[in-house]
Specification:
There is one protein chain. Helices cover 44% and strands 26% of the residues. The protein is of the alpha+beta class. It has a single domain, classed as Orthogonal Bundle (Arc Repressor Mutant, subunit A). Strands 1-2-7-6 form a 4-stranded antiparallel β-sheet. A 3-stranded antiparallel β-sheet has the order 3-5-4. Helix 2 packs across helix 3. The longest helix is centred in the C-terminal third of the chain and has 26 residues. It is globular and about 55 Å long.
Length: 170
Amino acid sequence: MEKLVYGNTRIVTIKDKPIISLILHSYADDDKKKILNVTANKPRIILDIINACKLPQTSSYRKINLLIKNGLLVPDGQIPRKFGKKVTKYVSLFENLEINIIKNDISIKAKLSEGARHAIFRMMREKIVNFNKKQKASSLKNYQVIQTKVISMPTDSMIPFLLKGGIIKV
């Protein structure tokens, strides 16, 4: 995997076969492709995504949850609703994809959406700040706290791939 940086945009070349398969299967499904296209430039709540795509609710929720699990839809903040309830907005990880096939070698050049980059940075910052707050609170006591909770992300998600490749840095 290589990463190319042009100005403020981030373009990534993905050569990892399981990740390519995940992306191709997601974009091959017409409903998932609509969902990802609708959220490419503007974060939306799930109900707005379903209405914009004109899709049935039951199957859409299942597909949206799968896209979230796989890291292709990224949580991008929350908006307040009635009675103090907050609803999460989601943005597509990619703004643009270019699929290259040369003989049996497939690669994807992907431009990360700006909204997704900012959302991932916010999530990581919140994890670090929350961890530091816990550390400070525990350091007031006279014993050392060892972190036992590991931040878990599905192994088939795009986010660990982007972190591991240095595409998104803390």
